[in-house]
Amino acid sequence: MEKVLNTGPVVQKEKETVTKMIELYCLKKHHRHELCEECQDLKDYALKRLSHCRFGEEKTACSNCSVHCYKPEYRQKIKSVMRYVGPWMLLYHPVYSVKHIFNK
Ligand SMILES: [Zn+2]
Known about the structure:
60% of the residues lie in helices and 0% in strands. By secondary structure, it is mainly α. The chain has one domain. The protein is globular. Zinc ion is lined by residues 26, 30, 32, 35-36, 38-39.
């Protein structure tokens, strides 16, 4: 099976959103203006997972997805990021629809 990386607009948008969330998380939680090593690592991981998401442009919110492609440790991390920055995202980046990420 050939491997094609996702580059469509839906995935692209999710990448922007997850990047913003992690940046905000690091800023608020770790008080860093540039991503610390841990957050950088999480971001790289999240973007890679999106690039390889088997649903591509058909994907739903990751939290609704039946395929848990995240390793447990990263899953745990991204969960706390989302929980932490959720309210902030609405404030700073209302343009990004964070809502669907939270809809269970
Ligand atoms: Zn950080």
